[in-house]
Amino acid sequence: MKKTILISGALIFTLTVGLTSCKKEGCTDPTAINYDIAAQKDDGSCEFSNVPEPSTYIPSFNGEFGALIALKTVTTIETPIGNQEQNIGTAVAVFSENGGTSFVGAGTVSLDDNELNPQDNNSYVFTPSASSYTGINFPANLTWKGTGGVWPTFEVTTNQGFSTVGEITSNDPAGSSSYTLTSSGVVGADSTLFAVYGANGHVLKTVGGNVFSHTFTAGEMSSIGTGFGFVQVVGLRYDIKNDSGKTYYLINETARTKQVNID
Question: Band of the pLDDT at 23, cuts 50, 70, 90?
Answer without folding.
Answer: very low
